[in-house]
Amino acid sequence: MNPGDPLLSVENLALSRGGRALFAGLGFSLGPGGLLLLRGPNGAGKSSLLLALLGVLRPEAGTIDWHAEEPPKLHYVGHQAGVKTRLTLLENLRFWRDVNGETGIGAEAALEEVGLGAIGALDAGYLSAGQTRRLALARLLVTDRKVWLLDEPLAALDAEGALLAVRLIARRLETGGAVIAATHDDIAGMTETLMLGAAA
To answer: Taking the alpha carbons of 175, 27, 183, 74 in that order, is the dihedral positive or negative?
Structure first.
């Protein structure tokens, strides 16, 4: 695969759920460093599209072509954070590192990165909604994967947490990865501002 080649190509995709058509004729491509934001009202099919790209939902028509590898190795962070409440923060990250592969930074370093380093020994069930979202974002760091699929990545985060999430996204793009995010937030503008500031 050459550096400029697309990571993903989607053509004429159609998807329905519960007998209701969500979309049809959808097409796009995504290359290294690409950020694709899925926008629209609730129920428009943003989350369902992410699940189709992930391979969880089967489209009625069209093709999803991951050019890099088959099956693709992706990171997915959905509405449900996938956090085990009876495990500590560190145990949660070590579990996901063991499942997905130890190709990123260590669990302790990942917690520091998302601002949870001081409470790594705490059971995850004691976390606030915003802290739980930070822990889910830390999962992106313990295993390195080129493409991230994120469903409302800024949900429940305060201003500092939102900046953290955007910073992680910007870093993923700068290193040749790609991000597809379903969101109501201006992640593109925030990411562009952050990357321009870093380059200045």
So the answer is: negative
